[in-house]
Write a structure and sequence with these properties.
Layout (H helix, E strand, L loop, with lengths): L1 E6 L2 E10 L13 E6 L3 E10 L53 E6 L3 E5 L2 E3 L6 E4 L2 E5 L2 E3 L6 E4 L11 E5 L2 E3 L3 E7 L2 E5 L2 E3 L10 E7 L2 E5 L2 E3 L4 E6 L2 E5 L2 E3 L6 E4 L5 E4 L2 E3 L3 E7 L4 E4 L2 E3 L4 E4 L5 E11 L4 E4 L4
Parallel strand pairs: 1-3, 2-4, 3-5, 4-6, 4-7, 5-8, 6-9, 7-10, 8-11, 9-12, 10-13, 11-14, 12-15, 13-16, 14-17, 15-18, 16-19, 17-20, 18-21, 19-22, 20-23, 21-24, 22-25, 23-26, 24-27, 25-28, 26-30, 27-31
Antiparallel strand pairs: 29-30
Length: 332
């Protein structure tokens, strides 16, 4: 069921290891959460390890758009109801699992909680490594690796909630080898500092692999690395913020992709290099400023477009679909 469940509590934990929490079938509330924080909890986790939460991970049928200038759909939502009960979250985030809860979440933080976590190890969970819903999470000096469906997911918990209700600060962390998306966020305020997002892998039977993806978010990404994703590095939908001093390299299908950006977004002194297909791409994106840094070494990628035609693309910067950008002092 739940390895550690804290409700209406204030707690500080240190040197905790939570492993191999088994799934609970038919449970109306989340089963198989390594650590669960619910109902307005304020908790600090220090030196905690969450390893090996398990469930049945089904195939994922999401397919990314093909073709160089194609509209790139967002990754599937996690569909978290505001009341959090029953959760519609499982190894297949695009399908309902309310009646038969089979989860594999390492750390669950929900409904107004405020969590400060340091030096965590969260690995080998069959769904999300960590999930924060309508809460505040500050995570530092931690490793989230080899989780099946999203490494860390941050969500405001409903269509009507605001970014003020959902915030995450990720500092000096490493997210490595997670499936689908290493860091996924929706309708949240997300800050990532001095962190490394590496080797995001495709979900079984799907094309989805993104180092970072945010939807309707304010994202601050500073002094971090997003590398070697099996598809995209950084993907932003309907979001704004700041990307400064980062290295985005070695991603197999687009380095940075900005789509339908309708609020100010600045890219300052980033190194976007050795990605395939497109280094930096804009699709219907407005109010974007690219200031300093470099975009170089984009490699060709040959694939089939939506009409079945073979296309080869290797562009440094693509400005598409009525996008607007100011570019200055950039090496391309």
């Amino acid at each position: 069921g739940v390895g550690l469940d804290l409700r209406s509590s204030r707690a500080e934990l240190s040197f905790v290891e939570i492993t191999e929490v088994a799934a609970e079938q038919g449970a109306p509330l989340p089963a198989d959460a390594g650590a669960s924080v619910d109902a307005g909890v304020d908790v600090a986790l220090v030196d905690a390890g969450v390893d090996g939460a398990s469930t049945d991970a089904g195939e994922h049928d999401f397919m990314a758009a093909d073709g160089g200038g194609a509209d790139l759909p967002p990754a599937p939502d996690l569909r978290l109801p505001p009341d959090l009960g029953p959760l519609d979250l499982a190894a297949r985030p695009d399908q309902a699992m309310a009646t038969e809860a089979r989860f594999g979440v390492g750390l669950l933080v929900a409904q107004g909680s405020d969590v400060k976590a340091s030096r965590l190890l969260i690995s080998d969970c069959a769904a999300q490594g960590a999930l924060a819903s309508a809460s505040k999470l500050a995570l530092s000096d931690s490793l989230i690796r080899d989780n099946a469906v999203y490494g860390l997911a941050v969500d405001c918990g409903g269509e009507t909630c605001s970014r003020d209700q959902s915030e995450a600060r990720i500092e000096r962390c490493e997210l490595e080898g997670n499936g689908g998306v290493s860091l996924w966020a929706r309708s949240s305020r997300v800050t990532v500092l001095e962190s490394r997002i590496d080797k995001t892998r495709r979900l079984a039977g799907a094309e989805l692999a993104r180092g970072i993806e945010v939807v309707r978010c304010e994202l601050t990404l500073r002094d971090s690395e997003v590398t070697d994703s099996e598809a995209q590095g950084v993907v932003m939908h309907d979001s704004g913020g700041l990307l400064a001093g980062n290295s985005v390299r070695g991603n197999l299908e687009r380095g940075v992709w900005l789509q339908r950006v309708a609020e100010p977004l600045r890219l300052e002194a980033n190194t976007i290099e050795e990605n395939r297909r497109i280094g930096l791409g804009l699709f219907d994106a407005k109010q974007v400023v690219l200031d300093g840094g470099l975009v170089r070494g984009t490699e060709n990628l040959t694939s089939r477009d939506s009409m079945g035609e073979t296309v080869t693309i290797g562009d440094g910067v693509d400005v598409l679909a009525g996008s607007e950008i100011e570019i200055r002092s950039v090496e391309i």
